[in-house]
Amino acid sequence: MEFMEIVKTRRSIRKYLDKDVSDEAVNQVLASVQWSPSWANTQCWEIVVVRDPAMKKKLQASLPPKGNPAFKAMVTAPVVLLVCGKKQTSGYYKRDAATKFGDWIMFDLGIATQSICLTAHSMGLGTVVVGLFDHDKAGEAAGVPDGIELVAMIPMGYPEKSGSPPSRKSIEEFRHDDRF
Amino acid sequence: MEFMEIVKTRRSIRKYLDKDVSDEAVNQVLASVQWSPSWANTQCWEIVVVRDPAMKKKLQASLPPKGNPAFKAMVTAPVVLLVCGKKQTSGYYKRDAATKFGDWIMFDLGIATQSICLTAHSMGLGTVVVGLFDHDKAGEAAGVPDGIELVAMIPMGYPEKSGSPPSRKSIEEFRHDDRF
Questions:
Q1: Is B53 domain-assigned?
Q2: Does some domain include residue B155?
Q3: The overall pTM is greater than 0.95
Q4: A89 confidence band (pLDDT: 50, 70, 90)
Q5: Of A44, A117, B4, B95, which residue has the fewest beta carbons closer than 10 angstroms?
């Protein structure tokens, strides 16, 4: 696929084929995190690769049981990636926040998340980004230590089918020229 | 280029050829924002495309004059993209923050930023993400209204040359299996 086709055809995928994802494929996805840019190259990311069904079940329990379309995907996906980051590194200069936004961990993990989503899609893998869950409960289940935040969980597997895209704003709606 | 080659060879570019970036090229980069995933498809992004030299100069004045390697790039790049977002949409359910992280604006703008960086690179364009500046001063210069945050500025142009990559952690350093 052409690069822009990969960007434009990536969808949230919540149903997967009964087909494993090789460790080589997982590492290729992680290589896209490794090569992502980050604040002053701080690389605050830490990724947990979950294949254990019991762990997936525990993590699923941190989602609201109703209203989250990714609830089932947490246990049916062959792999769930936990996107974590070290606090107070990105956005910091020595021990102080360098901007009014404080910790840039969310920004850098957003960058890493898009690397994961696009790279997975380029390999024929589907992903869905899960952000709505009890982060402390999930972090405790996965043994995430103090000083590290678990921010997003990404079920990943070969898509059963691809969906139609949700509607998007036109470029004109969010583009401004020279000033807002 | 292969997709992974685009991911692995993208560098921060701070010196540009004296060559304009067409409006068509800018819109192709913005299409990658348009197709980025976001919290519940909220698409909180707003992008200002700055070509006006006087505006670049004003924005540059919000950077610390020393120690920021992107200082010159703010005025020498043919285009500077201002990555802005609407507050209290991403991460919110109705009027309340849905997680302990509050506003996910930084996460979604991180996603959009990586879309910009990778798409630009796939088109032969160089970018550098600038996060260290006085955000209120820059926002005021660009006329960013209340309720919108200017988070990052991205000078963009055809690279004079590409640099060597800063060192990266190995995958083993940030990969964990089944639990942290």
A1: yes
A2: yes
A3: yes
A4: very high
A5: B95
